[in-house]
Amino acid sequence: MTPSTARITAVDTYDIRFPTSRELDGSDAMNPDPDYSAAYLILRTDAGDGLEGHGFTFTIGRGNDVQVAAIDALRGHIVGRPLDALCADPGSLNRDLIGDSQLRWLGPEKGVMHMAIGAVVNAVWDLAAKRADKPLWKLLADADPEWLVSQVDFRYIADVLTREEALGLLRRGAPDRVAREADLLRRGYPGYTTSPGWLGYSDEKLTRLARRAVADGFTQIKLKVGADLGDDIRRLRAARAAVGPDFRIAIDANQRWNVGEAIEWTKALTEFDPYWVEEPTSPDDILGHAAVRAAVAPVKVATGEHVQNRIVFKQLLQAEAIDILQIDAARVGGVNENLAILLLAAKFGIPVCPHAGGVGLCELVQHLSMFDYVALSGTTEDRVIEYVDHLHGHFENPVVMRRGHYAAPLAPGFSAEMRAASIEEYTYPDGAFWAADLVTRETAA
Q1: Nearest to residue 349, comparing CAs of 374, 383, 400, 312?
Q2: Helical H segments across 100-162, by residue range
Q3: What's the CATH fold of domain 177-421?
Q4: Which end of the chain has a smaller Cβ tally under 10 Å, C or N?
Q5: Which sign does the torsion angle of CA 303, 306, 311, 315 carry?
Q6: b/e 138-149 (16+ beta carbons within 10 angstroms → b)
Q7: What is the pLDDT of residue 27?
Q8: Mandelate racemase/muconate lactonizing enzyme C-terminal domain spans which residues (predicted)?
Q9: CA 16 distance to own-chain centroid
């Protein structure tokens, strides 16, 4: 079959879970026992070139089957689409899926269905980048600004960001793009690590991993807080002693507090000079974030990993509620919506420091930040991508860290492709790991 008539022929889905709760990896004040999971999909075609589109959205265990079911519900909207047209305009699928009136009722543009749309759209971008023989960050950075703007849905954000303004922002970044790309390839993009800071870790493990972070070239770590103030004071004291007085330490409450608690608790930790406080309260509470920000300055306020869509990000920026905007590669409606959010951040001059970790989130979000640096914001000042040293070996093209920096991916695609052996072993509940685990538990009982 010739490429001009090739189509999407299948959407295969997988419920993939890793038993991270057993070592308390990922533990925080709101999520004490996460099993890092991915509702994963593969787009298959009849093009005959062997290329596939891989995408996923991240969950923490129970409910991953619900997320997979949501992706399955989109199959009829995808199978049969012409491949050339789809890869030339991924925004067409994004618009069709978020615009379907009956699916839209389940959101609109939020929750499980919106995350499913994001997973599918991201898989299309993975396939488009592979067909262009470019890593996604470079596909985006090389793209004509007019085409990039055509990929953005300006509905509900045009009151603060017009198409013309977005085009101007992208054109502004064009003159020095080649030099920035060379700098990115040479130096990488700065990261910070949350690996020392999980709430379930002992003080000894926290201290050891914090010292390792310094030795590995990071300039910032993050600690989970919010369960017990006395514990937080003790842990922050240990972390500060391990990294020294001039090293940035961020804190993350994972939505644990009411607004008043957030203010009081953050102030109680200021002796340790926290750089930002993350998710101090509900991600939907825009005015609450604004109140916290006004009260705890100069500690910065960061949020975004659970923000539902570009419209909520718009309001956080309008209300001057955040100092740091944290995109998530899999929470919103895929690359297209994250382009809108990056443009909003550029319009308001707010640094973007993405949420990562989880399963494959580091692999994905690096592309978005690198595009932002090369083609949009033009800076990495006060910008870092979260890094967590978990589960990268399950991906065909895992992230590479050098002296606390993400090395720019060179392989074509979105770095989303998981190893076939990992899919087979960790698919729930019948994969090799989970089947053996069930036998072990039944024997023990």
Answers
A1: 383
A2: 101-104, 111-132, 136-142, 145-150
A3: TIM Barrel (3.20.20)
A4: C
A5: negative
A6: bbbbebebeebb
A7: 65
A8: 203-299
A9: 18
Residue 1's pLDDT is what? 44
Strands (E), 194-287: 220-224, 248-252, 274-278
Task: Supply the residues annotated as catalytic.
Answer: 224, 355
231 and 200 Cβ atoms separated by less than 8 Å = no
Nearest to 242 by CA among 277, 279, 201: 201
Encode pLDDT of 2-35 as tens digits: 557 999 999 999 999 999 888 767 767 667 788 9
- DSSP H or E stretch at residue 243: helix 229-243
Whole-model pTM over 0.90:
yes
Lookup: tokens for 213: 């972070």
Rounded to whole angstroms, how far apart are CA atoms 336 and 164? 17
CB 357 within 8 A of CB 385: no
Domain 3-134 has CATH 3.40.140.10: no
Bridge-partner residues for 74, per DSSP?
Answer: none
The answer to whether 3-134 and 177-421 have equal CATH topology is: no
Contact between 80 and 8 (Cβ < 8 Å): yes
Q: Where are the domains of the chain?
A: 3-134, 177-421
The residue count for the chain: 445
Question: Which residue in 205, 192, 255, 253 sits closest to 24, CA to CA?
Answer: 205
The neighbour count for residue 226, using CB atoms within 10 Å, is: 24
d(CA 41, CA 437): 24
DSSP state of 23: G
Write the single-letter amino acid at 78: I
